[in-house]
Amino acid sequence: MSDAIISDVIAHPLTQTMTRPTSTSWGTYTEVSMVLVEVRTDAGVTGVGETLARFAPKAYADLIETLLKPRLVGQPVSNIAAHWHTMRRSLSGRSGGMLIEAIAGVDIALWDIMGKLAGLPLARILGGMNRSEIDVYGAAINWVDDDEADAELARLIGRGFTNIKVKMARPVDEACRRIQRMREKAGSKIGLCVDANWAYSLDEAVEVGRALSDNGYFWFEEPLKPEDEYGYERLRERCDVPLAAGESNYSVDQARRLLANRTLSVLQPDVARAGGVTETRRMALLADAHDVAYAPHIGMSGIICETASVHLSAAMPNFRIMECECDESAFKVQIADLRPGCLRQENGRLKVPEGPGLGLQIDWDAVKHLRSQ
Ligand SMILES: [Mg+2]
Q1: Is 334 helix (H, G, I), strand (E, B) or coil?
Q2: 277, 254 in Cβ contact below 8 A?
Q3: How many CB atoms neighbour CB 144 within 10 A?
Q4: How far is the centre of ligand 1, averaged over its atoms, from the C-alpha of 27 (Å)?
Q5: CA 232–ligand 1 middle distance (angstroms)
Q6: How many A from CA of 193 to the centre of ligand 1?
């Protein structure tokens, strides 16, 4: 394998109106954005990455092209760890926010190129676990009225999911009612978990957590705001349901405490937020060292985030299950030709792509069509 020299970094800000709005404890989303990062090389090999940029995608694109690109052009692709640190030090202050999300898109693209140069799928470049398929769960049944929730449950079960996530919000008595009702509707054979998107105070989370353990839910995701590590530690002592979090963390530093004391049972970094493949792998492996499972977050992100996460899932020893957002997002079904996004899973399993790098063929006409105005 010979190396290649980075010749250009292009950021494509994309926006779409969602076919089905997403309703969580935060409210309802009808429009979502991302940035597709294209890294070109002198060898003619191009890599693609994705930056989580739910809002203001043009600001992220500007950050990538004006701050990060000049530090990379002319450099060999394979020094990815060095590139990560150079990009990280392009701004001072603690790590997080837009910079780390911007780095994520570039970093994923560099790993895509590495796989293509080697002629191997990314999962194997990362030190594969010899997995050809991974487990996924259906996400999500939204915070909607009972009839709509029943329809979403039936739709997800109809698509073959055996594990399903349910969004919860306030008030607590209503959440507890829905938790019990959803268990009765789903029956005992469907695995259920809950995502609260930081809806609760500590005392409220204890009450909801009790309803979850009484009804056999397999995890309680982001019950508290991500900065409240002390709250998570207290909650761990006061409820039995396993705690999951990590989609709001940008780096291994922000996950360390809750991993080291095993407050979390499951860590859920998002590769398009947490600094790309390089940092997400560090987070997953630190979790593994503390016997905490790795379960990638996808949410409203696109096919590149999803596919990079599939490769990480296939390579990390502590992988448990990956989120599969079952919408018809243009970011999943139009940008790349890897079979339509939400239709690829069968019986709650997803095949690991076998092509080199991410294994994606980008439809550049679709990218142009989705460009943010
Ligand atoms: Mg979540």
Answers
A1: coil
A2: no
A3: 16
A4: 14
A5: 15
A6: 11
Instruction: Name the phi and psi angles at 248, rounded to 5.
Output: -95, 0
Residue 140 Cα to ligand 1 midpoint, Å, equals 10
CA of 223 to the centre of ligand 1 (A): 10
Cα–Cα distance measured from residue 103 to residue 88, given in angstroms and rounded to the nearest whole number:
8
pTM: 0.96
- Centre of ligand 1 to C-alpha 191, Å, is 17
Query: Which whole number is the average pLDDT over 227-256?
Result: 97
- Treating both helix axes as pointing N-terminal to C-terminal, what angle do 80-88 and 97-118 enclose, rounded to 10 degrees? 170
From the CA of 291, how far away is ligand 1's center (Å)? Answer: 21
Q: How far is the CA of 177 from the centre of ligand 1 (A)?
A: 21
Q: What does the buried/exposed string (b/e) look like for 308-318 if buried means 16 or more CB atoms within 10 Å of the residue's CB?
A: bbbbbbbbbeb
CATH superfamily to which 6-122 belongs: Enolase-like, N-terminal domain (3.30.390.10)
Question: Cα of 251 to ligand 1 centre, how many Å?
Answer: 17
Residue 139 Cα to ligand 1 middle (Å): 9
How far, in Å, is the centroid of ligand 1 from the Cα of 188? 23
Residue 29 Cα, ligand 1 centroid: separation in angstroms?
14
Residues 30-85 have pLDDT tens digits of 899 999 999 999 999 999 999 999 999 999 999 999 999 999 999 999 999 999 99
One-letter identity of residue 160: G
> Ligand 1 mean position to 72 CA, how many Å?
33
Q: From the options 3.10.20.310, 1.10.1040.10, 2.60.120.260, 3.20.20.120, give the CATH code of 127-356.
A: 3.20.20.120
Domain residue spans of the chain: 6-122, 127-356
Nearest to 243 by CA among 232, 254, 231: 232
Q: pLDDT per residue over 95-142, tens digit each?
A: 899 999 999 999 999 999 999 999 999 999 999 999 999 999 999 999
